[in-house]
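Summary of Year 1 activities. Much of the first year was spent building the evaluation harness for sequence design. The harness presents a backbone, in tokenized form, and records the residue chosen at every position. We chose the following record to illustrate the format because it has been used consistently in internal testing since the harness was completed.
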């Protein structure tokens, strides 16, 4: 293993971990594509816009059951594991791990702010950075304490939503069924040029980074990061467990996760998608998503162990090694397709067609990632991030 004071060289990386990160990053687009292409409240109530019958309903159902909340949970847990990996590497080299990590994280927040206000309000980097600033202080806790604290933090937004649902006269109808005029205004905004989009993008980003962060994102992200730390410390996210263990993880995570998620679908369907059931039904997927994410973890590690040099493993690992660049690239390509400064297809593409666009973007990202890493050591954004973190120019060419 290298003792260089700089970033971890490619030869020292955990291939299965990179493959899992690539798998999660690609899967996130299945949900983000909804917000890129339709009014943002479709995340809360998919009934508010677009065809929700026939093939389009099943496209939503499959995506909701197998993707919504699962890939972002997996990616967040990996971020937590990354905190341990980064700081432990610096501590072994006798460096000031916390200072380097804070500098790295502050630049992540800066890039996230630019992403949110210049390109897309759905940015997650700012929330990751703000949460990581304090989560890093718990990196030396025992794994059991990290796991317990993580689950406790996860329970906070769930509890808050249930309290709102139990309030007499609680009114969530405005978000569940927003006025048609508001939906149309958002559609017209994003079919317009870049400056016109600021009218919606800026307040939406501010809300996510203030009240939305305090009431929801902070707790869920911090909790999942701590769970990721614990899973890495327990050698689950480092590939150190047996094949039998990962098989049990797949079965247990899938059974538990899918049971909860499908029960939620049954609840909201039986309630005929009424606002009264809205906050209750979200809880099923909220808790089912991390369980199914753990099943995905097991599947990817089993596959990477079976075919460590196979084309699928190498392709996913390439995307994982360039995840920061690929995350921003998804925004650039999606906004170019759907927003008015590009093709202007916002609100014009149904859910089945969106799945086709996702597949196309995946193919482009995999191809570009594999080709890029034949010539370069890091993704372009990863390289800039490293230069800013270490305050020196890092070699980019392989």
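For this record, the design step produced the sequence shown next.
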């Amino acid at each position: 293993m290298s003792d260089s004071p700089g970033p971890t060289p490619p030869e020292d990386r955990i291939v299965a971990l990179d493959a899992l990160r690539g798998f999660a990053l690609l899967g996130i687009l299945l949900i983000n594509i909804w917000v890129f292409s339709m009014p943002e409240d479709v995340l809360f109530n998919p009934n508010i816009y677009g065809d929700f019958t026939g093939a389009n309903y099943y496209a939503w159902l499959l995506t909701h059951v197998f993707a919504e909340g699962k890939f972002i949970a997996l990616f967040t847990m990996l971020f937590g594991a990354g905190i341990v990996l980064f700081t432990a590497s610096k501590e072994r080299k006798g460096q000031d791990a916390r200072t380097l990590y804070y500098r790295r994280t502050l630049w992540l927040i800066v890039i996230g702010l630019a992403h949110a206000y210049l390109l897309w309000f759905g940015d997650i980097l700012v929330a990751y950075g703000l949460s990581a600033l304090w989560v890093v202080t718990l990196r030396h806790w025992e794994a059991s304490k990290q796991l317990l604290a993580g689950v406790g933090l996860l329970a906070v937004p769930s509890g808050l939503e249930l309290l709102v649902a139990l309030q007499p006269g609680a009114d969530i109808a405005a978000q569940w069924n927003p006025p048609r005029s508001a939906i149309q205004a958002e559609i017209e905004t994003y079919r317009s040029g870049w400056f016109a989009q600021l009218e919606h993008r800026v307040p939406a980003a501010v809300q996510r980074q203030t009240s939305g962060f305090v009431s929801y994102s902070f707790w869920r992200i911090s909790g999942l990061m701590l769970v990721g730390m614990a899973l890495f410390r327990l050698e689950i996210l480092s590939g150190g467990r047996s094949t039998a263990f990962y098989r049990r993880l797949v079965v247990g995570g899938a059974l538990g996760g899918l049971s909860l998620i499908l029960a939620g679908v049954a609840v909201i369907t039986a309630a005929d998608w009424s606002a009264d059931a809205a906050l209750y039904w979200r809880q099923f997927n909220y808790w089912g998503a991390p369980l199914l994410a753990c099943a995905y973890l097991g599947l990817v590690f089993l596959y990477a162990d079976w075919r460590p040099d196979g084309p699928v493993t190498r392709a996913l690992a390439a995307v994982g090694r360039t995840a920061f660049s690929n995350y921003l690239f998804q925004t650039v390509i999606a906004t170019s397709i759907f927003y008015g400064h590009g093709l202007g297809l916002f609100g014009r593409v149904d859910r089945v067609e969106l799945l086709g666009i996702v597949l196309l973007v995946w193919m482009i990202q995999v191809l570009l990632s594999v080709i890029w890493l034949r010539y370069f050591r890091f993704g372009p954004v990863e390289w800039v991030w490293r230069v800013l973190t270490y305050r020196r120019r890092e070699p980019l060419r392989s």
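The longest helix spans residues 278-306. Quantitative recovery figures across the full test set are reported in Table 2.
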